[in-house]
Design a protein that fits this description.
heterotrimer; A alpha/beta; B mainly alpha; C mainly alpha; A: alpha/beta; Rossmann fold; 4-stranded antiparallel β-sheet; 9 helices; globular; C: mainly alpha; ABC transporter involved in vitamin B12 uptake, BtuC; two-stranded antiparallel sheet; 2 strands
């Protein structure tokens, strides 16, 4: 445990007088599957936004793969291999599924079109999320779960080393949850480090090797999932007393 | 060289009065853009329409322009509701408000302007009323009624709308509609309906603003364009939905313009507003008087 | 079609247009055709920013007039400079102003950019109105040579040919962008800027490229104007009708591809040339305004939308 892919230290963020995050310390190891949970408004999405450069953190620093990210815009972070999927899928509505994946392939991966067979890469990614036969459709034609899969495929198209899946399963049926879960585990087996942010406890526990709990902008627990969910303060904060 | 103190004081005073008038011109956009997030760049064109109605009422029927504008207020309100309805059905519900919605209002601006040109030509028109020629004097300070009357009318309108927004259910609903449509639904209010009423009111203010405009200066159809920049500059500087902030910004712009025009010549004054707007947008888009 | 074969076809069409116009045997055909071509360039330029990235520019007249006035300045200082070079200078000036405006306002929401472009148009007009070197409010006269400098013909034929070449370049650039890396980046920005950024698209840089390109082409379209009109004053150079036409043409033709603005410009441009002669210029502008409003409400994908799914 000496060469983490992501190191967050002393990270803090406020909106006006409201403290969204305070003193967050977090390390993620290479190849790890980390679960991040917390009640609504506990700062999970703010943390994702600070990690990915959508928001600027006021204090503390974020280091990815040994490099300090502070001040780097979002597009540079994804080029380094830090990808995220959005909580509510945000597809490019006027582009076909294949073209949706083409954007990160062209912009975020080192190949930038030359040497990389863009068509084939799009095809492979769509195959991976079993959307290959809809390659020429527009996102508007997709169902809820297909939209989630497209969102994940687009995050994967940038060839990330760390993927942050922000509530990729919210609102899906149990069968669909298993679908996405299997997909994420497969990606992890291919060497991608994954942070899963999720409300569905069954999925989080099945997935995570380690569990981190945020409450009111602070980290209150970090450790083995089975131990963490038995911690009294976690039970109180998360499940209600 | 003697510092022209009387010139400066008079420029300040007329700038203050002008600022009050600018508030009347802007208040409709404060509602539509500031509160409803609808970029109605055609608003100044409706103000010019109001000016021409006041002109007809004045020249043909001999009515006082402000009385005339109050009489046609309901008509403007209905026009606003109708425009919002088309906008809502065609753009907002399709999620296409940004590009095509903007083009829609740009088209309305242009249609209104060209129609006025076709009907009235490009000559300047003005109104007559007994009080308009008089000027009050206090020492070396001049108070032309041509500026005082619009100032007073504006302040009355501003205070009235401020009270309406703060005290009535619909007023509070209008202020909430952009931020929290869900909460509105829980209060059993239909956001679409609230927005329609609010937009109707914003266009209704154009009737009165048009009347005070033609009192202040002669009007021709394309003059509205000069006001697009002013109106949005004031609205943005004032912090979008806030009336007091808007009034402060309007007065500031009025004073700066008046001083510019006194000391550098009137042909420079349009650039002042737009320069202000560009600066505000570049440096502090939340507005000089807005919250951070 | 590959880009080069597309360009070859465009050039062929351009030659056919030129000789077709010459066959009419009346210089009025060149005068009218010049205006239509000028709108092809303007509409295509507008669409590079508006249609591809979704940022609405109301300041067409400013970019266009800047090009025209840079020619006025060059005409007074370096009258020997060939017109194509003046066009290039006009393009650089307007492109730089586009870059500046974009740098100031493109970090903000799209509507602020649109309002800022309107504001910029008035600032520019005020500056030109107060600049006596280029004629100020009174305007300026520019003498148009009689003969074309490169072939045997009237100078208007030369102007027409230049505008034709500019149209070919603008359309070829627009089409090349569509299916390039740049084009996909633009489309991603148009659809969802946050998601674009999260996909590795440097959004600000791309928007600046689009604004500079778009403004540059508008400036080039305006650069020959002083020689075309021979008398230029701020209120005609900055006329709002340029802005309205340039927005109406792509929206009526369809903003999603290069063909839309060309179609819109040819249809609306021709219609207006005919209507200005037969009815009145104000009425022909009214028609444009009404068509714009009707099309954005009824046919959001424009004319080319009728032929695609």
């Amino acid at each position: 445990m000496s060469d983490p892919i992501l190191t967050v230290s002393g990270l803090g963020k406020r909106f006006g007088g409201f403290v969204a995050l305070a003193d967050i310390e977090l390390q993620v190891e290479r190849g790890e599957r980390l679960g991040l949970i917390g009640p609504n408004g506990s700062g999970k999405s703010t943390l994702v936004n600070c990690l990915c450069g959508t928001l600027r953190n006021e204090t503390g620093k974020v280091a990815f793969d040994g490099r300090v990210l502070d001040g780097l815009p979002a597009y540079k972070r994804i080029r380094m291999g830090l990808a995220r999927s959005f909580q509510l899928p945000r597809p490019f509505a006027s582009l076909t599924l294949a073209e949706n994946l083409r954007v990160p392939i062209l912009y975020a991966t080192g190949g930038q079109g030359r040497g990389v067979d863009v068509e084939r890469r799009c095809g492979d990614l769509l195959q991976m999320v079993s959307l290959a036969e809809k390659a020429q459709k527009l996102p508007g034609d997709l169902t809820q779960i297909e939209m989630r899969k497209l969102e994940l495929a687009r995050a994967m198209a940038s060839d990330p080393r760390l993927l942050i899946a922000d509530e990729a399963m919210a609102g899906l049926s149990p069968g669909e949850v298993d679908d996405i879960l299997a997909l994420l585990i497969r990606l992890n087996e291919q060497g991608v480090t994954i942070i899963m942010i999720e409300h569905i406890m069954r999925a989080v526990l099945a997935f995570s090797q380690r569990l981190v709990v945020l409450v009111a902008g602070r980290k209150i627990a970090d450790g083995d999932p089975q131990d963490v969910v038995r911690q009294p303060d976690v039970v109180e904060a998360y499940l209600g007393s | 060289m003697d510092f022209p103190l009387d010139l400066l004081v008079n420029a300040l005073v007329s700038g203050l009065l002008l600022g009050g008038f600018y508030a009347a011109v802007t208040i409709g956009v404060s509602i539509s853009f500031g509160m409803l997030d609808i970029v109605n760049i055609a608003h100044p064109a409706f103000i010019i329409l109001g000016s021409y109605i006041a002109y007809i009422a004045n020249s043909v029927l001999g009515l006082d322009p402000i009385v005339a504008s109050i009489l046609v207020l309901p008509g403007f309100y209905l026009l606003g509701m109708a425009i919002y309805h088309v906008y809502d059905v065609s753009f907002e519900r399709r999620g296409d408000a940004s590009m095509r919605g903007l083009a829609f209002f740009f088209g309305l601006l242009f249609i209104t302007e060209v129609t006025l040109v076709l009907v009235f030509g490009v000559d300047y028109r003005l109104v007559e009323a007994r009080y308009l020629g008089t000027t009050l004097h206090f020492g070396f300070i001049d108070l032309p009624m041509r500026l005082v009357v619009p100032f007073l009318v504006s302040i009355v309108m501003l205070v009235g709308l401020q009270l309406f927004m703060a005290r009535t259910f619909i007023g509070r609903a209008i202020q909430a509609v952009a931020q929290d449509p869900l909460a509105l639904r829980l209060m059993a209010a239909n956001p679409s309906q609230i927005k329609r009423i609010a937009f109707g009111m914003s266009i209704a203010t154009a009737s009165i603003a048009g009347a005070v405009l033609i009192i202040i200066q002669p009007v021709e159809p394309s003059i509205g364009r000069e006001y697009i920049g002013r109106v949005f500059a004031i609205c943005v500087m004032g912090g979008l939905g806030s009336f007091p902030g808007m009034l402060a910004a309007a007065v500031l712009l009025g004073v700066v313009e008046s001083i510019t025009s006194t000391f550098f010549g009137p042909s420079w004054s349009p650039a002042v507003a737009f320069g202000f707007l560009l600066l505000t947008l570049a440096v502090r888009p939340s507005g000089i008087f807005g919250r951070a | 079609m590959r880009n080069w074969s597309f360009v070859s076809v465009l050039v062929l069409v351009a030659f056919a247009t030129f000789f077709g116009t010459k066959m009419v045997g009346n210089s009025y055909a060149f005068f009218a055709g010049y205006v239509v071509l000028q709108y092809v360039v303007l509409a295509t330029a507008w669409n590079i920013l508006g249609g591809y990235t979704g940022y609405v520019n109301f300041g067409t007249a400013a970019f266009f007039a800047l090009g025209a006035y840079s020619t006025v300045v060059l005409h007074k200082t370096l009258p020997e400079l060939p017109l194509p070079l003046m066009i290039a200078v006009g393009g650089v000036v307007s492109g730089a102003v586009g870059l500046g405006t974009g740098y100031l306002t493109l970090r903000l929401r799209g509507t602020f950019f649109s309002i800022a472009t309107l504001a910029m148009a008035v600032v520019m007009q005020t500056l030109i109105t107060n600049w006596s070197f280029v004629g100020g409010a009174r305007g300026v006269y520019v003498i148009r040579p009689d003969e074309s400098p490169i072939f045997d013909g009237d100078y208007i034929e030369y102007l027409f040919l230049l505008m034709l070449a500019l149209s070919v370049i603008a359309v070829a650039v627009a089409r090349a962008i569509e299916h390039s890396r740049l084009g996909y980046g633009f489309a991603a920005i148009r659809d969802d800027e946050l998601a674009a950024e999260a996909s590795g698209v440097p959004t600000l840089r791309l928007k600046l490229i689009a604004t500079a390109l778009s403004g540059g082409f508008m400036g080039m379209a305006g650069a020959p104007l002083p020689y075309y009109v021979t008398y230029l004053d701020p209120s005609s150079g900055f006329s709002l009708s340029y802005a309205v036409n340039t927005i109406a043409m792509p929206l009526i033709g369809g903003t999603s591809s290069w063909l839309g603005p060309v179609l819109g410009a040819v249809l609306l441009g021709t219609l207006q040339q005919a209507a200005t002669v037969t009815i009145s210029s104000a009425l022909s502008l009214l028609i444009v305004g009404v068509l714009l409003v009707v099309f954005v409400i009824v046919a959001p994908k424009g004319i080319i939308g009728w032929f695609r799914r």
